[in-house]
Amino acid sequence: MKKVAFKTLGCRLNLYETDAIAAEFARKGYKVVDFGPDADIYVINTCTVTNQSDRKSRSVLNQSYKLNKDALTIVTGCMATNYKEQLAENEKVDYVVDNEHKTSVLSVVESHFKGEIVNPDQFEKDVFNYAPAEETFHTRSFIKIQDGCNHFCTYCIVPKVRGRAISRPAEDIFENIRKVVDFGYREIVLTGVNLGTYTYESYDFEKLVEAILEIPGDFRVRISSIEPDGYSASFFRLFKNPKLTPHMHICLQSGSEEILRNMRRMYTAEEFLQLTEKIRADYPDFNLTTDIIVGFPGETEVHFNETVEMVKKIGFGHMHTFKYSVRKGTRAERMPDQVDEKTKTKRSEVIRRLGEETKFNYRKSFIGKRQRVLVEKINRRGFATGYGEHYIPVVIETKGLNKNEFYNVVVSGIETGEEPVLKAYLTED
Question: In which element (H, E) is residue 252 found?
């Protein structure tokens, strides 16, 4: 029995694809092991969205070589697509499998161990040919509904490495969800590159989600990262269904109208603000999380302060902050007035601290309120930990609870530390 280890970097879409590939290896009799020296095969699913992502991906590649230089090493994902030729010349890499051929990773391995001459490009291109995974690295099941993007933001390399937008057939999605619910998963996370652009036959994103919520079973649905312009105003009525969790990660990127135009984003700062105000008017506790890019070319202190003020107004539950990273081949690479690294770091720290403040205040507002927690782990004290429907971490200060079960709780306080976590006790109703 050969042993295979996986490492995933980047987005939830990569997580979904790694889960599916790992499950396929397991079904074929391979033993899935930790990313350590005992592995016979390393599969590294990479990210290339920023320079830091590239560095992390290369670091994992170097780590695998140090762990076991005799193991078969396959690099796939977005960095494998973006730097395909360079990686193919790297002596630490046996095979480079781009995103279009990622579903063929197992076939590449099988052919290799049969002694065949293998070219990953010989296999069929199919970005959706992933079987439902019965066992994954997570307690929730990621469901890929869409891939690629047509927006071509001036800073973004994703259309190059993921291709143009394409949607998965709706019935395939429904069948995937029915199967993983039968496997026992209680949380479904819809994922893709640009979810709001989903369209297949009579289904758009809103109609697709509505149909998913009608699938029988005791499970909840979460929407992963989404653009602000991918759905109609009527979409938010769906959050009245208790299966759909009141949380969305909607990408702001900047609070400056001028910077958003230069980024070629498809919305204005004012439209984004109005969207969040409407959501909070209908669902006051709704968890809005976001991405912010600082140091985009031409960003002045005035532009940056507009972002700061926007963040204060909205009060995000969590923010991912990125320093602008030059990506070759994008329009922003050629823009004048590139911001120096020192200024980017300073602005990033300001946003990070503000984000910690808004996160703490948002989570603190739940003290005394109810949550329905899906238990994911049992900690060292024997207490159950998991996430409430608003995607906030909760520790239930009760022993003897079970993983992968829902519990109704009342939030009693908040634990401070690197990550503010809600403390809660069980309630019978």
Answer: none
- The CA-based diameter of the chain, rounded to the nearest angstrom, is 63
pTM comes to 0.91
Mean pLDDT of 366-371: 97
Contact call for residues 347 and 295 (beta carbons, < 8 A): yes
Find the length of the chain: 429
In angstroms, rounded to a whole number, what is the distance separating the alpha carbons of residues 5 and 37? Answer: 10
| Residues 227 and 250 sit within 8 Å (Cβ to Cβ) | yes
Judge residue 393's burial from the number of C-beta atoms within 10 Å of its C-beta, 0-12 exposed, 13-18 middle, 19 or more buried.
middle
Nearest Cα to 122, choosing from 114, 111, 130, 133? 111
Phi first, then psi: give them for residue 275, nearest 5 degrees. Answer: -60, -45
Distance CA 392, CA 1 (A): 40
Query: Are 130 and 20 contacting, i.e. CB atoms less than 8 angstroms apart?
Result: yes
Q: How many CB atoms lie within 10 A of CB 425?
A: 12
Please give the sequence-ordered ranges of beta strands (E in DSSP) within 26-145, or none if there are none: 31-33, 41-46, 72-77, 95-97, 141-144
Locate the DSSP E strands across 106-216: 141-144, 146-147, 166-167, 187-191, 199-200, 203-204
141 near 185, Cβ under 8 Å?
yes
Q: Which tens digits make up the pLDDT trace of 123-167?
A: 989 899 898 888 888 889 999 999 999 989 999 999 999 999 999
Interatomic CA distance for residues 59 and 35, integer angstroms: 13
Going along the chain from its start, the domains and CATH numbers come out as: 3-122 (3.40.50.12160), 141-364 (3.80.30.20), 370-426 (2.40.50)
